[in-house]
Request: fold
Amino acid sequence: MGTERIPSGVPGLDELLGGGLIPRRSYLVRGGPGTGKTMLSQQFLAEGVRQGEASLAISLEEAEEQYRADATAAGVDLSGVEILDLSALPESFAEDQAYDLFSPAEVERGPTTTRIVEVIERLRPARVVIDSMTRFRMYATNPYAFRRQVDAFVRYLTSAGATVLFISEAIQPSYDYDLCFLADGTFTLEVDAELRTIQVDKFRGGQHRTGRHAFKIGDGGIRVFPRLVPGNHGAEFARQLVPSGIPELDRLLSGGIERGLVTMISGPSGAGKTTLGMQFLMGAVAAGERVALFAFEEPVATMTARCTALGMPIQGAIDSGALLVRSIEPLQVSSDELAAEIVEVVSQAGRTAVMLDSVAAYRLALRGDDLVERLHSLCRYLGNMGCTVILVNEVTSVGSGLRFTEAGLSYLADNLIYLTYFEDRSSTGSRVARAVTVAKKRVSAYDDALYELVFGDDGIMLRGPLVARGFVEGAVVVDRDE
Reply:
């Protein structure tokens, strides 16, 4: 049998902890001001009430009225939680310092100790929050006395059957290291450039997920977004072909793109990458699949109008639920949160094709994290689940040649479709036109010739092949083979 676990009450946190907290142990929640420590502990208490457990908050800083008001404002219901308000008793702490806080019975207890013991004996709480231990430190006579008091206090609570969360203001890195050693588990909350993260530094008695994981504060409190581990997910599926619906393009691809693989549509701005990607999504819809678009850049209304003009029934697919469109502001969402949303869309909503538009905008959500690493995890997860993955990737020309992808990204693509511009010369003048080529297809044969890509009233068409005879500032110069 595994170790008994209890839910933390914080969505996503139990996944980091391998199922939840180990009962009758102590956990330190540390972080700077405003990181969400109190909110996390309040969700822990509220979860206890939902589980039918007695829950107690020992508030050393905020009055009970303010403590409850803050929880209500965050959408956390503490109506069944008992609060011991010790915020207005600094003189009581001073009187207690002659002894350990929970010293042997023959030593006379001070007023603060007496109040705590009385409520513990009466309530017999299964969950206790101490907010915060920083106040104890302020009144301790010396560091040694502080450690002895905290150790005795926490041991008293856990021996009485409580699972304990105690909070510390991590004002500087080494400020509360002594508390880290005393606790059975340590959670560090941080805020950096508007990105909130939580890290499980220690979890005695159980396996846990390491690293920094994003979390968000919203209605109902904190929600943690664990980093995606592709190997933890998988589904059985047939690697069938997904046609684009454009006969000429499907011929180049030997029938279409494969389910469970990654197709990257790459090229310069304005070449038609998003439109071509939408053609593949609509091909999947025509085959009876449910698909999803995560759009970071273009307004959905603009994209819908353009595709509708090319004969793609986008609005009908949206209205029927076959196409799910999520408009994402990358500066307001973390990559962990986005990954969690994609997992939800695929695992719960049954979407079998997912398009990200675009890689460049997705990078903005990373807040400095490695693009290749995060995109690799996301694509591996989607591939394991049998999803057709379409990545829209913008590149620019370098010198007199062409670059198919950004540095380090080409290996992610099982299929690489490249769009570019070319100069079309004739006796009456010249024009700039679009061209497409299949630069890579991992699992089948393909036609790698260059074709003109035409967006017209009749939809998307290919003409050619074209014979390239060089590059001028990234545009292809061609001779028509007609």
In short: The two ends are 74 Å apart (CA to CA). The chain has a mean pLDDT of 87. The CA atoms of residues 41 and 129 lie 7 Å apart.
